[in-house]
Design a protein that fits this description.
heterodimer, A: 196 residues, alpha/beta, Helicase, Ruva Protein, domain 3, Dna Topoisomerase Vi A Subunit, Chain: A, domain 2, 2 domains, 14% strand, elongated, B: 379 residues, six-stranded mixed sheet, 15 strands, binds adenosine-5'-triphosphate, binds magnesium ion, binds zinc ion
Chain lengths: 196, 379
Amino acid sequence: MVADLDHLIKLMARLPGFGPRSARRAVLYLIKKKEMALFPLITALSDVAAELTTCNLCGNVDTVNPCHICTDQRRDDTALCVVEDVDDLWALERAHSWRGRYHVLGGTLSALNGVGPDDLNIKGLVERVHAGGIEEVVLAVGATLDGQTTAHYVATQLAHYPLQITALAHGVPVGGELDYLDEGTLTQALKARRPL
Amino acid sequence: MTPQPSSINSISLHNFRSYEDATLASIAGSVVLTGPNGAGKTNLLEAVSLFAPGRGMRSASLAEMVNDSSGKRDFAISINMSAADTDTQIGTGVAAASPGKRSVRVNGVAAMIADFPSYMSVLWLTPAQDRIFMEGASDRRRFFDRLVLGLFPDHAGHVARYEHAMRERMKLLTSDGTIDPAWLSALEARVAEHGVAAAAARRETALALQPLIDAQTDGLSAFPRAALAVLGDFENLLAKGLPALAVEDVARGALASRRTNDASTGRASYGPGRTDVHVTHCGKGQSADRCSTGEQKALLVAIILAHAQLIASRLKRMPIILLDEIAAHLDADRRHALFEIIMHLGVQAWMTGTDRSLFSGLDGMASFIRVNNAQFNVE
Ligand SMILES: Nc1ncnc2c1ncn2[C@@H]1O[C@H](COP(=O)(O)OP(=O)(O)OP(=O)(O)O)[C@@H](O)[C@H]1O
Ligand SMILES: [Mg+2]
Ligand SMILES: [Zn+2]
């Protein structure tokens, strides 16, 4: 096989949800549909590469830094929703049920996977809370074991501050990840959040 | 309300284990499978066991279940079952496109493995379990956790979670560098939460089973009376009458105080993973591991039969019982007593053996199937 092609397939195969087989199929498709799929994809990828950054404040990805959610005047400054990853933030935004701001941790604690507190943006969260003005922190992490451990850990780090710490209500299936929930369930879980 | 009978009316296997395509139709009552070694009897029982949550009675991987001489990567099992006068078609298997994931269909609609308990309960006793009294505590615990799962569908989730949290804790304790105590506390809180939930379910199952075992073996001398005791760090605290939340507090404290010790030995010296299930043969006042092979088997049969009654009374539905090689260690009296109890309870039992004559007590009262080379012949 042409070396370039082989290289591309290898890169694609490393993407989440892809394997060597689906990578080969996707690449073949892109080559066959150059005008319709490959060129627009190249443009989109280079646009993203050029313009997207991670928000220094909340960890969201956007074309501006701080992101549009962090600078949105209509949002509630006193409430902060802590999520594992950006896709969870997107899921909550799709559900249109959160009017406060966000904080993206960037994963969950997992000793077995070598992810410790310093690998997550927990320091940034404590700094934001320390700066004052936040009255409620919602720990909207998944109901997985690692998610719950992370929630517990984060709650301990915030324990000295005068604020309410809540968690998503049970409605989140045991072992469930936030991103898989439909918008209705997510809204319900957020509305019925409970003190931790 | 009396428990509803529930039974499988037909089963089809495609590319599963030694089977290419085989169907067993119009099954009436209990099923006796006989045939030579390697005929496919246990494989068929395993297929039925896949309709309980989990990985079936062999705890095998999906890849092991695919017929390895077919060159294909998919398999499918489909059953038609009746419970409460309603027929349900349930299928499970893997598609070649996603060999790592088991799919489930109920009446043609996509469903989940977690949905099985709303249609049926499946219990089993296999020759591999015959030795659990001689082996380590983990085998007995696994055997018993299966029983608990029949009553508490969340049990497997709690066990998986405390095990995961314990592994995380041990990984942290044995890693070099400074250990974050808040992280350890967060993990120990999970161990306490899920471990105590699991311990409470184990205790409740044992307490509910005991009177049924007693009643069943009372007077019916063919089966020995088993006394069950679930002993564990959390179970013992619950047994003292401590409320679950108080036990969680004690558990967190105890785990925290053993960090240094556990770090140096690399083993958890406390926690839900140390729970053991003690079984005593009451008639002899002897611990099960001291009993003969046949006596141990009889104790297990007594427990499984009591469990079937427990499922029936709690879920208002009879379970299906898989008894692999059941005749092997039971003498003629016990065999006949077993058949009588099965008929009396009205459960559908699936039994295997190499020799047809071992099941003569069931003549005319069960479906006799001769299995040969992964083919069924109804007798
Ligand atoms: N994935 C597989 N593909 C093909 N054949 C398999 C697979 N797994 C197991 N077998 C074969 O299936 C055959 C039947 O096994 P099974 O355990 O059902 O026999 P059995 O009838 O219970 O015999 P026994 O009386 O010895 O217990 C065995 O020869 C085994 O090697
Ligand atoms: Mg067998
Ligand atoms: Zn932001």
